[in-house]
Amino acid sequence: MTRTIHLSLDINGERRELDVEPRVTLLDALRDHLALTGTKKGCDQGQCGACTCHVDDKRVLSCLTLAAQVEGRQVTTIEGLADENGVLHAVQSAFIEHDAFQCGYCTPGQIMSAVACIREGHAGSDAEIREYMSGNLCRCGAYNNIVVAVREAAKAVSAPARMVEVA
Amino acid sequence: MRDFSYLRAASTEEASQAAREAGAMLLAGGTTLLDLAKCGVAEPDTVIDITHLSGLGGIAVDANGAMIGALAKMGEVADDPLIKAAFPAVAESLSLAASQQLRNMATIGGNLLQRTRCTYFRDPAVFPACNKRNPGSGCSAMGGVTRNHAVLGTSEACIASNPGDLALALVAFDAVIETGSRKVAADDFFLLPGHTPEKETVLQPGEIITGISIPASAAAKNSTYLKVRDRQSYEFAAASAAVGLEFEMDGKTVRDIRVALGGVATKPWRARAVEKALIGKVLDLVAIEKATKLAMEGAVSHGDNHYKIDLAPRVIARAIMKVATSNVAPSNVGGLA
Prior knowledge:
- The complex is a heterodimer.
- By secondary structure, chain A is α+β, with helices and mostly antiparallel strands.
- Chain A has 2 domains: 5-80, Beta-grasp domain (Ubiquitin-like (UB roll)); 90-166, [2Fe-2S]-binding domain (DNA polymerase, domain 1, Orthogonal Bundle), CATH 1.10.150.
- Chain A has helices at residues 26-33, 90-97, 107-120, 126-132, 143-158, 161-166; strands spanning 5-11, 14-20, 52-55, 58-61, 74-76.
- In chain A, a hairpin with a 2-residue loop joins strand 3 and strand 4 (58-61).
- In chain A, helix 2 packs across helix 5 (143-158) and helix 3 (107-120) packs across helix 5.
- The radius of gyration of chain A is 16 Å and the shape is globular.
- The termini of chain A are far apart.
- Mean pLDDT of chain A is 94; it is low at 162-167.
- In chain B, helix 5 runs antiparallel to helix 8 (166-172) and helix 12 (285-293) packs antiparallel against helix 13 (307-326).
- In chain B, the strands form 3 sheets. Chain B has a 5-stranded antiparallel sheet with strand order 4-5-8-6-7. Chain B has a 4-stranded antiparallel sheet with strand order 9-10-11-12, sandwiched between helices.
- Chain B contains 13 helices and 12 strands.
- The A-B interface holds A 1-3, 5, 21-23, 25, 44-46, 49, 52, 58-61, 63-66, 68-69, 72, 113, 116-117, 120, 122, 130-132, 134-136 and B 1-6, 8, 27, 30-31, 34-35, 37-39, 47, 49, 51-52, 75, 98-102, 104-105, 232-234.
């Protein structure tokens, strides 16, 4: 008794059509149905943050979101962060610059979370960054460099747009 | 996760009607329902998505109090400047709960209906016995690892603790939970486990929370939420307290005090004995220490969770000291530097 539903989703500004069982999460839809494997599956239980994406510019956990729930909303994944010319987002550049990872598995979730953290205005101090990034776990323990990367990216993002392009 | 059919409700009435069917479950933020479906605890036949419904969101605050729509997100309420000003304990209880990702998803109505974090409840494959999941099957937590289990409000059938943060603040400040058909005091909304731990609230099948109202008060305005836990962030409470305080004109005699406890009880726990012991008294360290111990009257520990009986009164005391010194010169409060 496999019942599928047809969904039309807006992923990284593109319209994507798919037929899935109702129980399919946004995470599984991205990875298994749309070949967008940048979003990672860690715990699949809402505890690690590896699957963090943006829905209508807010960071959410795609493992606890049904694909059906985001119809009519704008989804952004790590693949949609760089601009159309492939120039990396300031947070992506900062993670490379400050070596804010070891194995890299949590990195897409960390970066998506950090972009939102800065946009929310929750990157005002190292303590605030640690609190508002607490939903993203890093088993390698790269936390110190992640905090530095978010702090420096927050400065770059708040600088005039021209400066960001140069960076 | 077992498959289910998906219905996007067009109206609250349609959702309510559909939710009356056996096997139907409502989906708002989804952070509890999908998590429990993956654990095998929730096995819905139909999931009714209410997230798109209009008229159930929004936050309004005026001189009389706050009205928060059931679909308002935890993060929205935590960051609302008017809520922060009039009900700091409410805003703090939300910002200290979960992570920002979860707060962007989870709704206020859904937050009140979150299930216990009891490890035995959440693992049916390994622990079939659970009176909350399967009435009459027994309790696997009794005699097990009980570090996170309740010491207050327990029964022979269940010792699972209520994991909520917001709910304490609501219980402390006499909030009212509204459904389409009635208004229920927050303190009456949650049920003790007794012989029926599977029934956690007074909600009837198909009844949907539409909003929460919180009356304004001086104690709510001078309030705080203190949460003590095993790690600094993104963790459930070992013990937590929502406390509000209003002094008489002299700045040291208690006119009104509200105390509610979390992490230690089977439901959001209003500590009325503590309040009663302090109203009309001059607040000093001796009075606080004596009064906060009353919160643990009737507490029963199960070994690993015994520490909560010592911890909870200290958490309340720290929260009282914080609100006592926040808007009064410390010299006015005997011994509270």
